[in-house]
Amino acid sequence: MKQAITAFLAVSILLTGCATVQSIVRSSFPYTATLIIPSSSNVNSTLSARSSATSFDQIFTGKTTNNENIKEVRITSAKIIASSPANQNLGVFRSVKVFISMGDGSSEVLVANRTDISSNPGNSLVLDIDNSKFLDSYLKSSSVRIRMEYVLKDQLNVDLSVKASLGFSASPGTTN
To answer: What is the mean pLDDT of residues 65-85?
Structure first.
């Protein structure tokens, strides 16, 4: 009887530990996407760019999330960084909104935005997040897409490539 209880406790600790580690990994490594803003984009017009997003576990394991190991996913941070040209001042944007959706394009949700962009923020811009929603179904889907809706206040001379980086927190899920 003692061996059965010990074995049960060991398996329970192992399963809980794996879920906790997976939760920590998911909340430590962001989903990222590279978005292209064409130099032909009109100033003072609402436009958008989209791209598939990848996460740390997809890059290293080739798989998407394990649905049972995480729950209560919320966004914790959002940032865009100029990647080409790397020294591009992101003050060219009047406003930015970032949405995530499942890979099939269904069910899009606003996760971050910024409307008070100064003239000289440099080559990175921290966005205001909306962490009022659980995003479990989005991050548990087979793929995640990021769409950035933007308004330019200045004309671009060259195509601008920005990296969107979204950080998430999650609680460990339970397995049956």
So the answer is: 82
